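Query form — protein Phospho-sugar mutase

QUESTION: What is the three-dimensional structure of this chain?
INPUT:
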Amino acid sequence: MDNFLDTAKSWMTDFFDPAVKKEIQHLMDTDTEELKDRFYKQMEFGTGGMRGIMGVGTNRINKYTLGKSTQGLSNYLNKVYKDEEIKVVIAFDCRHNSNTLARIVAEVFSANGIKVFLFSDLRTTPELSFAVRHLNCHAGIVLTASHNPPEYNGYKVYWTDGGQIVPPQDAEIIAEINALPFEDVKFKANEDLIEVTDKEVDEAFIQASVANGNFNARGKDDFKIVFTSLHGTSITAIPEVLKRAGYTNVTVIAEQAEPDGNFPTVKSPNPEEPEALSMAIKKAEEIGADMVVGTDPDSDRLGIAVRNLEGKMEIVNGNQAMVLMTKFLLEKRKQQGFKGNEFIATTIVSTPMMEAMAKTYGVEFKTALTGFKWIGKMIKDFPNSDFIGGGEESFGYMVGDFVRDKDAVTSTLLACEIASEAKANGSSFYKDLIDCYVDYGFYKEHLVAITKKGISGAEEIKEMLKDFKENPVASVAGSKVKWVEDYNTSTAKNVLTGEEKAIDIPKSNVLIYETEDGTRVAARPSGTEPKVKFYISTNTTLDNATDYKKVAVELDKKIQRILSELKLG
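ANSWER: The structure tokens for Phospho-sugar mutase are given below.
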């Protein structure tokens, strides 16, 4: 947007608050670069909805950008469901301004004749997804920026099925939003259409979480858990869910239990970052706990630490947790008897081990683009299929289909069930994971995330991905590249034979190289942060669990070689 100055000036009319105009004038006088960053583009929907830094401007989260999005969504709902009483439900997390922004969003919906259920206080994202269907709503909104830094906030839109918006609704809604001038936003509330909700939905969600995540595992009285909500929303649900499922030895990290948008005790409230769980792991070592669980601010991601072969707490990554959760669910379903319509799912940048497991159990395996909205879409698109469970490498998992997004509440319970039962059987979560490597192949993954902020950062990310595509890799760690999967063009090409196959997944800026030995390297920009991500997956056979450490070292060396070759290390 070259005319950022004109766009900024358009916010100087009487429609905008005096404080907003004052700030814009100050930036015009003192900081043109900052003004440009705030107004050079409109904030867009990505894999996690609309997410960005809070502040004044079209490229910021504020009253007006969220108001415009809500007005566009209201227009769309009123077109599509013109003969119905339209209902939406709104939740918000612990972030700065989330409660205020949620109220503004509710007011805009109500001003457009739409009935609103507004949670009285912060709630988890999975509860919002659940609430859409529980309250028979047409849409849902959650105000959250997930695990992003404190200066961020965001706006995720859910549809009638409880899943995030996907094609064609997303493009149609965006078109409605983009066609609007800010002055068309109706901010004057119809209070008669706003209903505050809490306990009734809370109780239904907690009951559903226990019903889906509790498998009556043995050994609960002898199983010690350390839990941290990392200052986020999961404190409203996880302790109660664990209690109702029979876990009595749960230690909550008090210093991180109070919801706080500053996230004062962690560098990042992201359980993917090892530092985020350090306080909980320290407590676990002190009291001899069996498992640590920590969740991100809106409680859709969970980090897990368990005791390794030496008895020390070790964080398992998202791929590892996903594999063991899926194996457990498949085994329980197998005991009941498969009906032949079951499937599990993951994303194109997650571990290929999920497919190997699906083949062994004889269930269907589906892959999707990154982002749980695509897994939710699978459930919607295949109503006669039975979704058992699935996840992605970025520490997200979904148990069954009663929630249609990452659900750290139910997944936390499931993880505890797995570990408690394993301990009662004389094994452990970690040992059960190694047994999976023996059964399905030893897959080891590594993620490199490179942050590039601002306008120049966006260009750098674009160039890095362009270079990765235009200067193709011929081999990786001594193994020839066999397949190049380009999700921008929806084609997979065997570079050794010339064979081409169509990729039946929506287009996306993702490129994946796969070698003859099954090594995979994928690159994509983050949909929610100013990052470019590289995903590396290696694998080999593990003939015996006793060889685990030796083979793990070999795979680690291979990953380091790949990082060096691709200049990522």
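ADDITIONAL NOTE: The chain has four domains: 41-197, 204-318, 322-398+426-440, 442-565.
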